[in-house]
Amino acid sequence: MSAIAGVLGAADDKTVLHMLEKMQHRGEEKTLISRGQVTIGHVELPTDVTEHSIQDEGALFLDGRVFEDGATLLTPSALLQRLTKQNPQTALAGVTGGFSLVAFRRGKGVAAPNGAAAAAGDVVIAQDVLGKKPLYLGYDGDRVLFSSEIKSLVGIAKDIVEFPCGTVSTDGKTFRKFASLEVPPPEVTDPDEAVEIIRRELRAAVARQLPSSGTCGVFLSGGLDSSIIACLARELTSDLKFFSVGVQGSEDVARARELAEYLGVEHHVRTFSLADMEKVLPEAIYHMESYDAPLIRSCIPNYMVAEMASHHDVRVVLIGEGGDELFGGYAHLKDVPPAHLHDELADLLKALHNTGLQRCDRMPMAWGVEARAPFLDEQFVKAAMAIHPSLKISQDGQVEKWILRKAFEKELPGSIAWRKKQMFSQGAGSMHMLEKALASRVSDEDVRRESEAVERWRLRNREELHYFRVFRGFFGDIASLPPVGRTKVLYQDRANPDPAFT
């Protein structure tokens, strides 16, 4: 787990150090390199993998992990050598994982963004195909800045944008695709074959995401997806701890306790109140860099469970993110015409980079914890998307994620394997408490008036206005910020799309 930051077009140690200080929660050990018109910085927490390499050939700073052929972990050293010998698109072709990276290659002599030769080499910047690890660009005259979080660019760059997923750039201005999300046609229609595929491929994905040393944590909501991950992790390692949060008496906590006892794993639980939620709300919004209402609701329990894991010296956790997008877990998907469901699921996956995946990165990283999502392992994504959607939502339209439940119904208690889908904020008990409390503090007229003043930001309701006010208080000149990702809560008719989600 780490953060990267840098400036192209000027040697500027002071600015890069300032950027890294804004992301100190992501790492402790600072490294800084200035060569010619380029300055690159990195902070890193000691975990099970090294995320940087400095050699005669140059340097590579990585946030995340990189795999070759979907299974072999590539070291930063090996990746740097590949980038030195090949053009960036060729070097990154076939590379998977969750990562953003910057590499400095000596002796290439590529022009820096302002036209001056980079005295010691050129720069390669890239991000994984799903956007699991964040990366942003900022522009200030001839300078191009890049960073793992928006907050470090605020007040420095005049225009901030997301780095495009699955692309590589050598100047921060032009981008070339090195990979696209592989969504195979849904040709697997036999339930027994689908069950075998899911069990085999998800187990392999969990194995790839386990830390090579130290205790592995699982954020256990008590829902289907995190329970399956917990069950597989229990098969693969004994050095394991479960962490759960919720309001007193919440369904999530009850089911999580049931599974922890069933599997015999050490389990830590924190219950919270409305006052607790309101106390951490500003911190969650600051780290999340969003005001999207459904996202912020789920951020709060995520933030709390990450804090608890950090206090138990756990640095890597497994999470259940991605199960709903792959297997049709959201309620609105039952309204999607069957012929469109496969495409709708693919769209949801592609939209995760600035919604669910942003939450999965920011909330744990606020406490120096790295979350890994086996469901979103690219090998498993390909396997899951090859399963026909008719197996994902039952034919009567009543049971979501039907084939996933069937795959693990023998390993899980029935109360969990066939538990009705709930959003994390619903199961944890935070959803309606926050909605009711915050909506009472503003009026519909407030929403109308402030929405007109900030039309680009598309405020949807009273609750979201409250979050937006906190967000704006932290980030100030919002005109320079990229659009905030919006959680898709209703099915979009493709012929009549809702502009709030385009």
Number of domains: 2
Radius of gyration: 22 Å
CATH homology superfamily name of the largest domain: HUPs
CATH architecture of the largest domain, please? 3-Layer(aba) Sandwich
Q: What's the oligomerization state?
A: single chain
CATH topology grouping of the largest domain: Rossmann fold
User: Which geometry do the CA atoms define?
Assistant: globular
Alpha plus pi helix count: 18
What's the mean pLDDT score? Answer: 90
Count of beta strands:
18
Q: Unreliable runs, pLDDT <50, ≥5 residues? A: 108-121, 490-502
Strand portion: 15-25%
The SS-based structural class is alpha+beta
Helical residue percent band:
25-40%
CA(first)-CA(last) distance: 31 Å
Largest sheet: 7 strands, antiparallel
Question: What would your notes on this structure say?
Answer:
By secondary structure, this protein is an alpha+beta fold. It folds into two domains: 2-177, 4-Layer Sandwich (Glutamine Phosphoribosylpyrophosphate, subunit 1, domain 1); 191-501, Rossmann fold. It contains 18 helices and 18 strands. The protein has helices at 13-21, 76-85, 88-92, 191-209, 224-236, 251-263, 274-288, 293-311, 323-327, 338-350, 356-365, 378-385, 402-408, 414-417, 424-427, 431-439, 444-453, 462-475; strands spanning 2-8, 29-35, 38-44, 52-55, 58-68, 72-74, 95-106, 121-127, 136-140, 143-147, 159-162, 167-169, 176-177, 216-219, 240-246, 266-271, 316-318, 370-372. Helix 4 crosses helix 5 (224-236) and helix 8 (293-311) runs parallel beside helix 11 (356-365). The longest helix has 19 residues, at 191-209. It is globular. The two termini are 31 Å apart.
